[in-house]
Each structure stands twice: as C-alpha cells, then as structure tokens.
Write a structure and sequence with these properties.
Length: about 600
C-alpha cells in the first residue's frame, strides 16, 4: 500500500511542478508592451504628450535612437507648449482610436519689420539647462530612460535644438502579467515529491523485513562439512544479500536524484510575481487637509526643481564672485541682490583686502513655497538651512518668461525663532497684489511704513503695526546709529553733522499668501548716512575711509558725503481681520553706494 501512495505522490508532484513551470514559461504572456512612434516629419523637437505616455498603466520606458547626442526632458505640458511657441516641432498625441499620431507644428511667421529695419532671425532655442524642466537626460546615439509621468506632463526629445530630433522612438510599458500560483505549485509539488520518497523508502523497508526467516518451512537439505585446509578452494559460502557498502551506495544514488530535482525545481521561477500577494492593504496616515482654491494654477516649481535651480544660481554666482564679473552675476541675480554684488566687485577690484559677500547657499531646501500660477512672471520662495552655522537663509527667485532663467531677487538671514504657516510645495501659494486691501498693510506700503518706524521709532504713526518684541533688526539699527553718532561727535561735532534716513527701495515687493490669509512679504529699504559740514570753511575728508573714497571717487568734499546701505527685509503680514501685528522674519544689509552730496 505504501508503494501505491508513493506512486500517487510522484504523479501529483509531477503535475503540480509541471503546472507551475508551465505558468512561468508556455502559459505566461508578454511582460511588456512596446509601441513604436512613427514620425515622418523632421523638426528640431519632438513632444510626446502625457496622454500618450499614460495610454497604458505603469512606468513608461522611452528608447530614442539617432546619431550623436540625444537630449530628453520632461515638464508640465503647458510650460513645454509655451517654450516651443516660437519653434518648429512635432507633437505626438492620441487619435480617436487611442493610437499615437504625430503632427507637425510650424513656428509662427515673424512679424513684418518696420520700414528701414532689418529682419532678425530668432536665435535657436537651447534645450539643455532650462529651468522649466523637472529633469533632463543626455546620452550618445541611444537614449533609454524610465519614467512615470502624470497626464499633465509631457516628454521632450531633441538633438541640440538645431539638428533634427531623432525620429526612431519607442515606448514600453509593463503589462502587469503575474503568475501568483507558480511559486506555490512548484514548492508544493516538491513537498509532495519528498513525501512520496519517504513513502517509497518505508515501503522498501517493509518489504525487506517481510522476506526474513520463518519458524515453519520446508526441511533443509543435508550439508557436508567444509574442509578448511584447502586453500583457495571454493568454500561453498553463498552471499544472500549485498554488502553494507553496496547497500549504502545504492541508497545514496537513489536519494541523490530526487534531491537534485527538488533543488532545481525549488529555485525555478520563484520571483516576487510568482507568489500571491497576501499582505493587507496599508492604512494611510492622516495628514493635514489643505484645500486648493478653485481655479488656482499649478505650482511654479517642484521641490526637486527648486533645489536644482538654487544650486545652479549658487554655482554661477560663485563663478562670477571669483571673477568679479558683474555681467556674469546678472545672469542669475536681479534687483538689490545684483546691486549689492556690483558694489562689492567694484570695491574688491580696488581694495585688495576687501572681503567678498557671503556665497549663495545651496544646501538642502527645508521649505519651498512656489507661486501657484501658470503664466509669467512667476516666483518661488525657498529656505536653505546650514546645520554647521545653525543659520537659515530665505530667498526669492523670479522667472520673467518661459525662455528666461530664474534670478535671485531677495535674500536674507532668517531670525532664529521664525515660523511660517505656508502651504505644501505641491500646492503652492497665490501671489498677493501689491495694493491688496486684505492685509494689515498692503505690500507696496510695507517698505515706506517700516522706514518711517526706523526714522521715528515709537513716534512713528506706523509703529503700532509692527511687532517690536520680535523685531531684532529695528533694535540693531537704533544701537548702530547711536554708537556711530556718539563716535562722530567726539571729533567732528564742531565742524560737521551726521544724519540718518531710511527710505523705501525701488524694487517691487514680493508677496506670497500663507494658509492663514496672511502673506510673506519681501521688501527693500535704503539706509543713508549723510555727513555734511556746518560752516562754509570746513570740508569733509574720507582719507581714513577707503570704502567711501573708492565709491565716491574723491577724498574730500565741501558739501559732504552720503553712504547708502541696502536692506533686504522679510515680514509676515497678517490678514486685515487678524489681531496680530506685522512680524519681522529676517534681513540682510550691505553697502550699496557712496556719493558726494549735491548742493
């Protein structure tokens, strides 16, 4: 009976293992689906729409073949469409049957020049390094990249923006084919086979024992004694069973075949998709709900994109700082951030020991607040933490149009206890209008009001709008003015006077809304120190002040000198309905100019 069960186990194991292997071989469908994109027209750019990329589920793998360098990038479809508005390109979309179809899109004809003017050919676009792309790739001859883009993003393929883009494109998606019972069938079959082997061995053992000597039987034949003196003669001894050595070898040979078979089958096709997924569905962690206002645009940048832009700005400004090249700095700086650098380059060119300004930090971004806007110009704020100096830097970046690079416009060091209630980077914030009536003070009045507070202190009509307890800058300015005035009066009180004044800067404010209906506002203020003589015979000399002497270009003046410092300031401005005051967030201050006082 044991042999019957052993044979049944062997048959069942063979069926199970065969079925499992068949699932992983002859019965398994294709793991991927590939679709070639036929492009007949030639153009410097090919755009694969997000609808094509998402026509099948799963990650998308692009393969582009051509001669030479191949460039690919992905970004928002709206941004890519705007960027290509002045260039010929091929757009790949889905037709009514769900098949990809390529359509040539010609650049608009240039406007007719006025009489007497020459027609200027538009410069070809350079795709590499654009701040619009969320990521970009470059490879030689063959480009392969795996993506998983949402439907609102598109993929751009090009060569160098002048030569025709590679037209041999294929997209591949995983089919999601799995064989969840292949693994259990193979392993289960191996276990059944092992059970059959055990039954077979037990059957052999039982059969051997059943052939042993019996007490009753036929009478044994008469035997004769064996002559032991005869050497080499046949002793007449007959071996009824093989030796122990032979039995052991036979058993090992018998057992080795199933063990090898089991080992081979056990590792056949046992990948993750060869097993049923029995794990439970993970429970999502509740997060704070952020309601996106209806009609709000997409965030200007993602966090990864913002990190890459900040790094590029830091690298290019560092190169400009080393070369003291204001034109190179202007490629990535604007407004007060650029004006301060230009003054620093002038001083460093003539004063060997004058220090450079602090480099633009490019460490990991702890906060990104992009403007939620689909048009241009667009802005984002970012905070960079420096764990070594335990200092955080806040900055604003602005992009004028789709073809321009982002430029740093404001930068300041945050106060130690700063907190900002802002939306997540994947939601973004709306820009607050300069004259918005919904804040305690409109953004375009913050600089004027705060300058009046610096000039008049508690006597200012705007003093009650600002939180004095958190305003470290106001207290620092008051101490600095008092100390410098005391020092000046010790030597120059009889022949001159020193006055201070703060005025609003010319740079437009940047304001992005917070979750509590307030706004983070960045403004500039110019602080001026003016030294003038008090009698007609006196002159003001600056021999001992190389900075003023270098910037003014003279060593003395009968009318005096005015030195101007640019302050970049960040504030939190609450909503008009709030009982909070305007809270100071951070500042940076550097010399801007020194001039002779005009009569």
């Amino acid at each position: 009976m044991r042999f019957v069960w052993a044979v049944a186990a062997f048959v069942l194991a063979t069926l199970m293992i065969g079925a499992g292997i068949a699932q992983r071989t002859v019965f398994q469908g294709p793991e991927t689906e590939t679709r070639a994109i036929e492009i007949d027209e030639t153009a410097p750019y090919i755009v694969v729409d997000g609808g094509v990329l998402n026509s099948h589920r799963g990650a998308q793998t692009l393969r582009a073949r051509g001669d030479g360098e191949i460039f690919a990038a992905y970004g928002r479809t709206t941004d890519m469409t705007q960027w290509l508005a002045t260039s010929d390109h091929v757009r790949v979309t889905l037709d009514d049957d769900g098949d990809p179809v390529a359509e040539f899109v010609a650049a608009p004809e240039p406007e007719e020049p006025a009489e007497g003017e020459e027609t200027a050919e538009p410069a070809p676009l350079t795709p590499a390094g654009s701040d619009l792309w969320l990521d970009e790739f470059q490879q030689e001859d063959v480009l392969v990249t795996s993506l998983q883009l949402p439907e609102e993003m598109s993929l751009l393929v090009a060569a160098d923006g002048v030569q025709p883009a590679p037209s041999r494109l294929t997209l591949t998606w995983p089919t999601g084919v799995t064989t969840p019972w292949a693994g259990p069938l193979i392993v289960g079959g191996c276990l059944v086979m092992a059970a059959g082997i055990v039954l077979y061995i037990l059957g052999l053992r039982h059969a051997r024992r059943s052939r042993g000597p019996r007490r009753k039987g036929l009478p044994m034949a008469q035997t004769e004694p064996i002559d032991l003196a005869v050497e080499g003669a046949d002793k007449g001894v007959i071996s009824a069973t093989p030796t122990r050595r032979r039995i052991s070898a036979g058993k090992r040979a018998f057992a080795a075949v199933p063990i090898v078979a089991v080992s081979a089958l056990l590792f056949t096709g046992c990948t993750a998709d060869a097993w049923p997924q029995l794990g439970g569905t993970p429970t999502p962690t509740p997060t704070e709900t952020v309601i996106v206002p209806a009609g709000q645009g997409q965030p200007a940048v993602t966090k990864a994109q913002a990190q890459r832009i900040v790094t590029r700005v830091a690298e290019q400004v560092a190169t400009a700082d080393e070369a003291k090249d204001a034109a190179a700095a202007a490629a990535r700086l604007a407004g007060p951030a650029l004006a301060e650098r230009e003054t620093n380059y002038t001083l460093r060119a003539q004063l060997a020991d004058h220090p450079a300004l602090d480099p633009i930090p490019s460490g990991p971004l702890s906060l990104v607040l992009p403007q939620a806007f689909d048009g241009w110009p667009r802005t984002f704020m970012a905070v960079v933490d420096d764990p070594q100096d335990k200092q955080s830097t806040i900055m604003t970046m602005s992009q004028e149009d789709a073809w321009a690079d982002y430029k740093l416009t404001y930068i300041a060091n945050l106060a130690a206890d700063t907190s900002m209630n802002v939306a997540p980077d994947y939601v973004g914030a709306t820009a607050v209008e300069p004259n918005s009536p919904f804040l305690v003070l409109p953004p375009d009045q913050i600089a004027t009001a705060y300058a009046d507070v610096l000039n008049n202190g508690d006597d200012s009509e705007f003093a009650a709008f600002f939180d004095e307890d958190t305003d470290t800058f106001r207290a620092e300015v008051a101490r600095d003015r008092a100390g410098r005035l005391e020092q000046f009066n010790q030597t120059g009180q009889e022949t001159g006077k020193l006055t201070f004044a703060a005025t609003a800067g010319t740079q437009a404010p940047v304001a992005l809304a917070t979750l509590d209906s307030g706004a983070i506002v960045a403004v500039t203020i110019n602080e001026s120190d003016t030294v003038t003589p008090t009698n007609a015979d006196a002159v003001i000399k600056v021999d001992s002040n190389p900075i003023v002497k270098t910037l003014a270009g003279v060593t003395q003046s009968a009318t005096g000198f005015t030195t101007t410092f640019a302050d970049q300031l960040f504030f939190f401005v609450p909503a008009q309905s709030s009982s909070e005051s305007i809270r100071f967030l951070g500042y940076s201050s550097n010399i801007l100019s020194a001039k002779v006082v005009n009569q």
